[in-house]
Please model this.
Amino acid sequence: MAPYRKKTESEDHRLERVILIGNPNVGKSVIFNYLTGKYVTVSNYPGTTVEVATGTMSIKGKRFQVVDTPGINSLIPTSEDEKVTRDILLKEPFAHLLQVMDTKNLRRGLLISLQLLEMGFPFLVVLNMWDEAKSWGIDVNPKKLSEILGMPVLKAIATRRRGLEKIKENLASHPPPSPDIAYPDAIENGISRITSILPEIPISKRSLALMLLAGDESLIEWLYQNLPEEDIGRIEKIRYEVQARFRDPIGYLINQARLRKADEILSLVGRSAEKIPRTFATSLGNLMIHPFWGIPFLLCILFLTYEFVGVFGAQTSVQFLEEVLFGEWLIPPLTKLIRQYLPLPLLQDLLIGPYGIFTMAITYAIAIVLPIVGCFFIIFGLMEDSGYLPRLAVMSNRIFKWMGLNGKAVLPMVLGLGCDTMATMTTRILETEKDRITVTLLLALGVPCSAQLGVILGMFSDLPIFYLLTWILVIGLILVTVGYLAARLLPGEGSDFILEIPPLRIPQLRNIVVKTLARIEWYLKEAVPLFILGTLFLFALHQTKGLALLERVSTPLIVHLLGLPAKATEAFIVGFLRRDYGAAGLFILAKDGLLNPRQILVSLVTITLFIPCIAQLFMMIKERGWKKTLYISAVIFPIAFGVGGLLNFILRIVGF
Model:
């Protein structure tokens, strides 16, 4: 998904920090939104592509910076997300910590609590999803848990904003007690020997010694910055000596000891559900990922998306905005005003001509694309808030297995339907370089972003369903084929599929509104300027006769191979600047009757497979490097026009 607001205010870095920490899918972002009044303000953590959300809040007139860290399962990192969260804690030893737990899954939350206690951090625990835990028959005593941890504990229902009002007055600041965790004697001996070597640090030396014994390679850079090589060698020798005493890895033994302590705490603070109750929501959620019954749900959701985005958004809304609001109320009086007070023909053409800023850029961006992508943002938000997106990933996983992609590789592909640029960034979560390259290729090749997909659905809404199904079939076959070949031609190995499925929930109207408005704000800030830039580029080409030259040069490809009018060249040119702008150009050609149904299908298949927009191209260069980006682009261009030309030939042969 794309960052919707980016903020780099230097004064925020001088504020005291409140850091949210917790497992994935525990409601941290909802609490972040409550505390800061914002949905997302993100920037990349220095030196990484991991997004960290920040905002500000006030407590009794004093401002704090709030940081929403990536979801983690351990503070001994096994992924870049976990390393970023751990590094934030190491660099902010005096911050106020707020740990969010899923009350239904207290055991995994306590595993993080014990590590925070070992590090010597004070923190506030928020037991979220309290209502769901109660419905499952889970009974937890917050007061008893607070006594055991030595930290304040609150119960909350974040989606209903219940219990959150007590957070600000309960932020912990006093040092925590050291947890009584029984590690094997050999490990305790290793801890003692390593702590004697470590320099003075802002966190507990014991916790750092445990990380080093567990083989945390992400600390190597820190070691070389703070210790001489001789001491680093001694630490490594101690770790080998301790490991020689055990058959299992030390990290595994440390984790097992912490889990035993977590189970001990659980036995004292409450009663767990004997089994997960089969409520309507859980039964429905299970059906949605069933190998057979999940398919009708998937088709139903796709149909509803098509009706809302393609029919209501692209027909009803666009017709009113383009023909009435712009066509009758705004453009005519604006045209009259400009012609009256700006007598220069060049300026008139720049503002209200065929490639004018108002008549083309603003009209395309606001009257044509905005209502379509706005409707798509609403649907996407509903799928996010209800918990259907992970289920969509599970259903898609069966297809991705054919392409040699497993595990987290599904998630960037699903996120690509929101924004391919940011989805390319999230390929960093994949464990192997082979998976990263393959998914980057597939995202650039055939995954339409939300804005482009919205316009495409709008164009198909006036045609028989056959055309939409053909587009889906062709794009799907190309993705599967290219993924299948990449899995066998690229060196390296794939990864496993591990995904947590959150409960199915009724979407909260307030969350959907906030998310949709934030995404629309992002669209207006990020996309509209590119629409204007693309229009200025076309205007310059038109004035210098360069557009006519490009149309003549591209005639063999556009006209003869694809069977499209030469004017469609414009859509492919600006499609490189912004994907949805290119699709919007085809949308206008179709509305003006310049494209027949066959040409609509061929053009949309080709522009979907066309080289990525300039923003995604820069992100590919940043993530994969110049050489790999050039190779990927060199593969995409012939595939796009080759498939488009073959489809045009087949449709002509069969009489479409």
